[in-house]
Design goal:
Layout: H1 2-23, H2 25-47, H3 49-72, E1 78-80, E2 83-85, E3 91-93, H4 101-113, H5 118-149, H6 151-181
Antiparallel strand pairs: 1-2, 2-3
Amino acid sequence: MQFHVQSRRSSDLTTLIVAWSRQNWSTIRFCLLFSFFVGGILLFLETSGISKSLQNLLSTKQAQLTSWFLSLIGIKTQSAHAIVFQPQGFAIQITHGCTGIKQLGFFIAGVLAYRCSIVHKLRGMVIGAIATFFASYVRAISLFIIGVYARSRFDFLHDVLWEIVMILITFLVWLFWLKRMG
């Protein structure tokens, strides 16, 4: 008798799960595809020689643009490879994590996982690339300024606050793209 009651509860639970899955299939599909694309993009970024070359190029160009902009606003800097520095002063190295390429990877995974036309996906990727790289330039410039004028705040702003801001920007740009599609 006890077994029969347990079997019936198990059957009710299975029916409930199947009904829920059918009702929420588009969300489940998005989550599965998003996870798949994030894994593939991160694997590519971490292992591909092409990706390493692209990341080195992005780091160097970001350092050059950061130094150029800082010089425009009166902070004398130079750049060498992926380093922005003041002679006998503060310096930052633009690493691969500073370029916004991983945030762009998450953004692209969200675009690819969402069900829409290829044209909308391509527009989304362009919007995401522009927004992500612009935000990472603003991040580098602001962190250099903080490093020069408020060094004690640099680590917190670099390691915590700007990480959160970059995640929020990525998510908000993705939501903006979704709204513009509809």
